[in-house]
Amino acid sequence: MWQSPEEVFLSKDEIVVLTCDIFQVTQRINHFDNSLGSWTIANEESDFDACGIFRITYLLKSKKRFQIAISDDFDEISALMKEIESKVVPVLSKLPESEAPTYLFNTFSSRSKSQFIPHPKTVDFRSPFNFPRAEKLIHHCSGSYFSGTIPNRGTLFLSINYLSFLPSFSSLSDKFSVPWIKVVSVKRKLTVALGGYILLSTYKNSYRFTITSRVEETFSIIQRLADLGARRLLNNDAYTTTQRDPFRLSSSKFSTRQLLSRLDSFSRSEAYRNEFHLPATEVLDCEATGHLCTPFDKGERAGRIFVSENFLAFSNQAGPFLKLVVPLCDVKAVDVQISKTNSKYSDFVLSARDTIFMFVKVNDKGGLIDRLRYIVRGSSTSENNSDEVVVAEEALWSMEISNSSSSTSNSPVEKLGVQVEESVASKVDEVVPSTLNSTVAHSARFFNEYPLEHSTNIRTEAEKISAWEMYFSVYGKDRAMYIVDELEELVLKGLPAKLRGRLWLLLSGAQNDLCANPGYYEDIVRQTSGRSNSVLLEIERDLHRSLPEHPAYHTPEGIAALRRVLTAYAFRNPNVGYCQAMNMVTGILLLYCSEEEAFWLLAAVCERLLPDYYDSQVVGVRVDQAVLCQLVANLLPALLSRPTSAPSTTSTARSSSSSAVSLESSTLESFVSSLFRRSSPKANGGTSTDGFTIDPNGNTGVELVNLVTLSWFLTLFLNAMPLRCAVFVIDYFFFGGAKVIFQLALELLRLHLPIFSTSLQREEISDTLLHLSHFFNRLSTESSSPNIRYTLTSPELSLRLSFPGSQERPVTVEQLLKSARLNFGETVTFERIEELRMACRLRVIHALSDSSVREAIRFLQPQLSARPEDLTAVCFSFKEHYVTSRYYRIQQVQPAVQYGQVSSLNRPSYDMHRIDADQFCSLFRSQAPSTWIHLALPLFRLLDADSDNLINMRDYAWLLLLIASSDYRGKLRLLFTAHSPDYLLPEDRAGFWHRGSPTSSLSCDNSSPIVEFAEELTEETAVDCTVKDEISTLNSSSAPECSIRTDSFLSLNARYTGPAVLEEPPALTKPCFIDLLKTINFILLNDRKGEHDLLHALARLGQQCQMTVTRRSNIGAAKIETQPEWKIEFKEFLNSVYAIPELVLAFSQWIALASRIASNEDDLPPTA
After folding, report:
1. Do the beta carbons of residue 877 and residue 884 sit within 8 Å?
2. Which top-level group of life is the source organism from (predicted)?
3. From edge to edge, which strands make up the β-sheet containing 311-316?
4. CA torsion sign, 515 to 519 to 520 to 522?
5. Long-range contacts from 446-451, C-beta under 8 angstroms, 24+ separation
6. Cα dihedral sign for 852, 855, 860, 861?
7. What are phi and psi of 161, to 5 degrees?
8. What letter does residue 239 receive in the DSSP assignment?
């Protein structure tokens, strides 16, 4: 049957049987009818790749091969080949070579759509792997898995949580699945023979696959799914990655094709938002190619048009740089005209409030214009009247000419001194109209009252104002202005101080958030006023450390403004809360912005421009440090090696080294090794400092780069440069994004390469830090600053290091930024950074996740006194099950009002991951001895001392280690207590003695509302208690914190002996005691059918306990003259056990827990 053309590679098991021009029929020589390749349906919603015995392909001049037909019948494939020979080849021979690919694609696509395809049989992909029904397939493809050097052909399944491989022949190899959360590396290796292979690695194994079709698409999907899986490892009770998960809580509603489309849409939307600095809620709806009419040069620019719910954006594809973002809320109408010469092209005009935008030759295949008209709801279609379009275009040009002529006569540079200053002040509101709703009390803008020392003089400020006024007059002002190369040059010169705050809003895209959320900041400030928690206490400690050199933060007004902005954002985004360095960034924002503007700029920095930098685990900056080391290995390889002699001072970033490739391949490993280690630092002879494990045998250059540059990224150079210079960097950062920080960091490393090389030789870093400090202090914002010993070489505009005694021109921040752009602008692009982030993020997150578990193990080892290998196995399996089992469960983010308690800085690491009853039962049944699993629910109730349906890692580890230990007293105490009526409920007895325990009757819900990331919970109606009640609860020393058993937190060396109730177990009634005897019988005799001694020992135990209770009851009855209720105390029960050595010996049996968990690791499916 025909298929739509798709690129493929020929495999080794195919031979060519027919040929006609560029077309070939190939046959699979190792094909059998029972292979998985004959399947065509993965489940009820998705189609498999058809993999017949024969297929037809054609080969283009570009060496790309496309598959167009498949069949299991040679006669059928021969008939299709004859049809090609008679109808397609004659037409193809007459076409120009450039038109052949398009003709072939359209021809066979139409044949594929028009043919009748019988309904194929259905196969459920979940059954072979025992996946739950909630697991959804994203993609599948035919390929081979290499076991050593032997390829095993089969089908590769990519689902939400797993990568799975099902071989075609079960006799050759077994099926397997790999959870995405275990994948630490995904690479693609190109080879000539097989078209390349995909190498996927975990900590324990490596998997090599070859893909026969859609290799690029499959590799991209694997990368994205592995990235999503790694991000889930960051989840804990106070942090969620839901915002970055396109499948969360919706996978059950979509088919496989829809899920794949959702994944692709998520990636494209993220790239769209990053490119145009749009809010995090924008989702790309459609895009098309077309031309934008540019009135400033009366030309047309070819590019791509993007449309989302609130914006239309344009980016040119060739020629001079041009971008445009049009808020659709400002668009009044969309006028459309369909081309008369070619119906597939259309022209349309957007009529905004004060201007129009015209797009021509739009190839609208995806319905972009219809989507625009639906959003605007005011469009009028004009298919035959082209005069309106011409008139609109002429009106736009006439309006631009009028604006240009009027603007040239009003320059603020005509007068100097007082006249210039008055002109500047009067032009501020004209150039960038205000959109503020903030009150006078929250106006901030402390620069007006406390200007920076040595800031730009009045003449320079006036010249900048004039240049910006000219730009606005030509290219438009406000959000819908044209962004061209001239704008970048203006930004590099430094923004005018009077306009800096509002231009920051414009360049960063924060103004879109501000306009879309009027009054939001004032509301959140009002709602959070007077509240207190651990996060706010941390903010309070850092307030007076925020830009202490600036006088604004020596005043109550400055401190209060800083407190309000940081507090408001901590409650807006509990994932971030507060992180050190946010205070410095916010401090510089408040110098030039109102509080509301600073709040939205801070949101843009934390959520879009530097994602994950300031969250509770600072993942983003760790990843970017790894990316920087990769770039240094490629662009400045000498920095990561110890040279025998100092390098030349004239070397630039464009020079390469023969060892650059090998350095780049090993740099990520070296970085992760220096950051975290999976093994114990003491075992490796390393030392630990502030969470970083330093390897004495590691790459000193990598460690030096990390040490020097970490603060640059976190504070945007605010703690390195003087404020008057750092604001220039922030100006450019809001324009260019994260790539600006990378380029500037690389330029500084390149410039000081001799200094770094000397430090590496001497193994002394103090001189390097001192030299950098002197360099930053001598940076200037003016070209007239004297005594700067760095210069700009001409004509390359690349900075180089100068030596004392030389007469050189001074260096300004503008020159430094231009030199960074020149040397690294072409290589360090946003696309390259994102590519490296994707590659580095997996290992960094895995190292961070492992480090958190290792920290928990370090806490628990002295408390539980367990064998290290057993405790390690339990803790890692607990964390993995926590992540996998909660994926399909409704995410419950703690309300902002409780966030400070839930994410308390004093909360131990083992308490950050807690599981409920269902999760506990699933994990316990897979790891505990089979004779104990019927006690899962009573044991969970016993551990859940505060009745919140949650237990932490320490609770579970203590239980499992006790069961596996030889401590017979502890086991008997545990069993005796678990059979108390408080824990063994009547409904549990229905299936009590069956292997499969009943479903948990405990609710998985807690008191926290169900919300998603960034949803606000600051309103009083969203919580169960009022602000007044909450504050009194927080300030009360006797009130426990929400969902946290602070009384159970022990000191590091204190021994944990389990729940407090175990110290004095309650007495058991006769029915409960009979249940206890049944349990002991089941535990001891289930696997020992021939142990008659144990059977007699159990009978003796029952008799002795009965005699003990009877003797005590008789004594009591004589005193009170009534028969007391039958009850047995734990001490009486234990004394009876002591008298029976067979029972003591049986309960003293030890279980190798680590090996048991390892053997059952692959048998634990996620809880749906």
Report:
1. no
2. Eukaryota
3. 380-381, 333-338, 345-351, 356-363, 284-294, 299-308, 311-316, 322-327, 482-484
4. positive
5. 446/550, 446/552, 446/557, 446/558, 446/561, 446/590, 446/591, 447/497, 447/500, 447/591, 447/592, 449/552, 450/550, 450/551, 450/552, 450/591, 451/497
6. positive
7. -110, -10
8. B
Torsion, Cα 872 875 876 880, to 10 degrees, reads 170
What is the domain partition of the chain in residue ranges? 2-30+49-114, 137-234, 279-379, 494-608, 618-642+698-784+794-828, 842-895+905-994+1008-1017+1054-1149
The CATH class of 137-234 is mainly beta
Rounded to an integer, what distance in angstroms lies between the CA atom of residue 502 and that of residue 546? 22
Contacts of 630 (CB under 8 A, 6+ apart): 664, 667, 668, 836, 839, 840
DSSP string, 340-382: SS-TTEEEEEEE-SS-EEEEEEEE-SS-HHHHHHHHH---EE-
Q: What confidence tens digit (pLDDT) does each residue in 608-637 have?
A: 999 889 887 889 999 999 999 999 999 998
- pLDDT score of 20: 87
Tokens standing for 266? 């998520």
Instruction: Return the beta strands (E) in 702-793 as ranges.
Output: 790-793
The domain 279-379 is classified under which CATH number: 3.40.910.10, 3.40.50.2000, 2.30.29.30, 3.30.930.10? 2.30.29.30
For residues 326 and 375, give the distance between their C-alpha atoms in angstroms, rounded to a whole number. 13
Rounded to an integer, what distance in angstroms lies between the CA atom of residue 295 and that of residue 481? Answer: 12
Closest CA to 140 of 229, 45, 278, 27: 45
CA–CA gap between residue 35 and residue 376 (Å, rounded): 53
Nearest-angstrom CA–CA distance, 876 and 868: 12
What's the confidence (pLDDT) of residue 877? Answer: 92
How far apart (Å, rounded) are the C-alpha atoms in residues 619 and 624? 9
| Tokens coding 701 | 């250059």
- One fold for 137-234 and 279-379: yes
Q: If 0-12 CB within 10 Å is exposed, 13-18 middle and 19+ buried, where does residue 330 land?
A: middle
Please give the structure tokens belonging to residue 359.
Answer: 């797009």
Could you check whether the bond before residue 295 is cis, i.e. omega within 30 degrees of 0? no
pLDDT in tens, 1086-1098: 766 667 788 888 8
Element (H, E) at 955: helix 953-964
DSSP category for residue 306: E
pLDDT of the residue at 585: 94
Q: Give the residue ranges of the chain where pLDDT is below 70.
A: 9-13, 29-52, 63, 115-124, 170-173, 192-195, 242-243, 248-255, 257-258, 378-444, 452-456, 641-699, 783-810, 888-906, 990-1053, 1087-1090, 1116-1123, 1161-1168
Beta bridge partners of 337: 347
Q: What is the pLDDT of residue 443?
A: 64
Instruction: Please give the angle made by the CA atoms of 949, 950 and 955, to the nearest 5 degrees.
Output: 130
Mapped onto helix, strand or coil, the DSSP state of residue 175 is coil
Alpha-carbon separation of residue 167 from 154, 155, 170, 177 (angstroms):
4, 6, 6, 12
d(CA 775, CA 793): 17
* Gap between the Cα atoms of 599 and 590, Å rounded: 9
- Amino acid 546 reads S
CB of 144 within 8 A of CB of 210? yes
The 10s digit of each residue's pLDDT in 1006-1024 is 433 333 333 333 333 333 3
Quote the CA–CA distance of 702 and 639 in Å, as a whole number: 8
Q: Is CATH 1.10.472 correct for 618-642+698-784+794-828?
A: yes
Q: Do the Cβ atoms of 469 and 239 come closer than 8 Å?
A: no
E strand residue ranges, 50-191 = 54-59, 65-71, 137-147, 150-159, 162-167, 176-179, 185-189
Q: Which candidate, 828, 773, 777, 771, places its Cα nearest to that of 801?
A: 771
Q: What three-state secondary structure class fits 1093? A: helix
